[in-house]
Amino acid sequence: MGLSSYKDANDLSYTSSSPDSAQAFCELTTAYMGFRRETGAILKGLLENDPDMPMALCAKGYFAKLMGSSNHSARAARTSEDLNEHLARINANEREKQHAAALSSWCDGDLEKTTRIWEDILLQHPTDGLALRLAHFTHFYSGNGRQMRDSLARVLPLWSEDHPDYGFLLGMYAFGLEESGEYAKAEEYGRAAVARNPQDAWSVHSIAHVLEMTERHEEGIAWVAGLEKDWSTVNNFRFHLYWHKCLYHLERGEFDLVLKIYDEQVASDIASDFYLDICNCSSLLWRLEMFGIDVGDRWSDLSSVAQKHLGDKDLIFVSLHYLMALVANGDRAAAQQLQDGLLEWSGLDGTQARICADVGLAIADGLQSARDGDFATAVARMEPVRYSLNRIGGSAAQRDVFMMIMLDAAKASHDALKARALFADRLGDKVHSSWTWKNYSSILETMGRTDEAARALEKSRKALAR
Fold first, then answer.
1. What pLDDT digit, counting tens, does each position of 409-461 carry?
2. How many of the other CB atoms lie within 10 Å of CB of 159?
3. What letters, b where the CB count within 10 A reaches 16 and e where it falls short, cover 271-290?
4. Which residues neighbour 294 within 8 Å (Cβ) at sequence distance 6 or greater?
5. C-alpha triplet 129, 135, 136: angle, nearest 5°
6. SS3 of 102, please?
7. d(CA 356, CA 344)
8. Rounded CA separation 453/150 (Å)
9. Against a cut of 0.85, is the pTM above it?
10. Spatial separation of the C-alpha atoms in residues 202 and 137, rounded to whole Å
11. Helix 129-140 and helix 166-179, axial crossing angle in degrees, nearest 10
């Protein structure tokens, strides 16, 4: 099949067999940015109709890497190897070669280089939505909120506000702003994005994060529920929005409702083995237990999924959530195998390997120690890395579960001075957290500070109405 150069609606050039393929790739990018369920089908059709198209092959490798597991990463590596040979045989353009180089670096585990390549592409081609969204992803899983923010700031003025995908950019910018602590500005951009397109789940989610971080729990429930008919049409990312809804209800003490949403939505497709589902479920169940709720045998299904990923070396954030499920379910042999894998991973080259060594191992040890009842060790392992926690990636709201686990262990360790300090520290950020005030009150009570404990307990009760 002969290949030529064609342009899409964004003035991006593609080496393909027909102009239809260039336009189909434009549609693929839009679908990916919108978490649409038909994204995979669009790529499959593109590969069937134009199997030699370099960008379609790049997307095949990218989407495999986005699954965050060793099996899919192996497929991405094979695609990358074949792609490099393929590019040598055809007259691919420079942007396509850069994308192929980014995929190769990603497969090699060098996320810094991978992201630099995408950012370099955007200097010359700011309307390359695929490069922009992928850079957003890797900034996110490197814990770089400011880089997420600035990556969008560099291209926003160069996109037409009439562009059909412009709203996605507003939502991504909103999330970068939120993760940089600029909540008011994030809310402005996120609401503007949702006004343009209520089905833009990422933008709905950016406001959900703002409302979580500013502790507007009742407003958060109304926000997520009010748009449910729109965002619930997307792929498994919709379960993450149900997870956000659960966080609000959790702080309001509405535990039966949290468990209902967990069963009916958050964990409803856990068998599909999508990494974000296990992250949602593991962190929510552990939170519930720290609130004193019996979660029954719900850990069992999560452990079954986690046991398929004992050797994964893709995203440390995800591997830690697999470990949470294993240790919580009491699967010691599998948990040890995963931890042995983390130790091996920490000695390898690559961005995530270094994060595993510097931060991940300590959190993993803390999780196991906390579950074993060795609370002092859990605190001793986790506290030194608390200010580096952002490096494991994920959002501030997602990472907060590890801070909560450390604080919960501090309280259980009976080191009242340490526990009081850590809970007071948390109240600087979570002034309306019922869980934090209640535990702070309990610690003060054990120290004989009865009046202060009573005031803290009253604040805990008032926080339930937020």
1. 999 998 999 999 999 999 999 999 999 999 999 999 999 999 999 999 999 99
2. 19
3. eeebbbbbbbbbbbbbbbeb
4. none
5. 90
6. helix
7. 10
8. 44
9. yes
10. 12
11. 20
Q: CB of 370 within 8 A of CB of 289?
A: no
State what percent of residues in the chain have pLDDT above 90.
94
CA distances (Å), 74 to each of 17, 32, 77, 78, 104, in order?
Answer: 28, 22, 5, 6, 12
Residue 432: alpha-carbon gap to chain centroid: 24
Rank 86-90, 172-176, 272-276 by mean pLDDT and report only the highest.
172-176
pLDDT tens-digit profile of 83-109? 988 888 888 999 999 999 999 999 999
User: Half-sphere exposure (CA, 13 Å, Cβ side) for 420?
Assistant: 15
Question: CB of 415 within 8 A of CB of 449?
Answer: no
pLDDT at 110 over 70: yes
Q: In 3D, which of 106, 125, 123, 122 has the Cα closest to residue 114?
A: 106
Query: To which residue do tokens 């702003």 refer?
Result: 177
| CB neighbour list of residue 224: distance below 8 Å, 6 or more residues apart | 204, 208, 241, 242, 244, 245, 248
Main-chain dihedrals φ then ψ at residue 120, nearest 5 degrees:
-65, -40
- Helix (H), strand (E) at residue 4: strand 4-7
Which sign, positive or negative, has the C-alpha torsion 68, 70, 74, 75?
negative
From 1, 27, 2, 22, select the one nearest 12 (Cα to Cα).
Answer: 22
Q: Of 57, 48, 98, whose CA–CA distance to 79 is shortest?
A: 57
Taking the C-alpha atoms of residue 58 and residue 102, their distance in angstroms, rounded to an integer, is 9
Tokens 């950016």 locate to: 206
Rounded-to-integer distance, Cα 47 and Cα 38, Å: 14
pLDDT of 1 reads 57
Match 């686990």 to its residue by tokens.
405
Q: What is the pLDDT of residues 338-375, one digit of tens each?
A: 999 999 999 999 999 999 999 999 999 999 999 999 99
Is 66 within 8 Å of 35 (Cβ atoms)? no
* Cα gap 399→394, rounded to integer Å: 7
Q: How many CB atoms lie within 10 A of CB 45?
A: 15
**Coil/strand/helix, residue 174:** helix
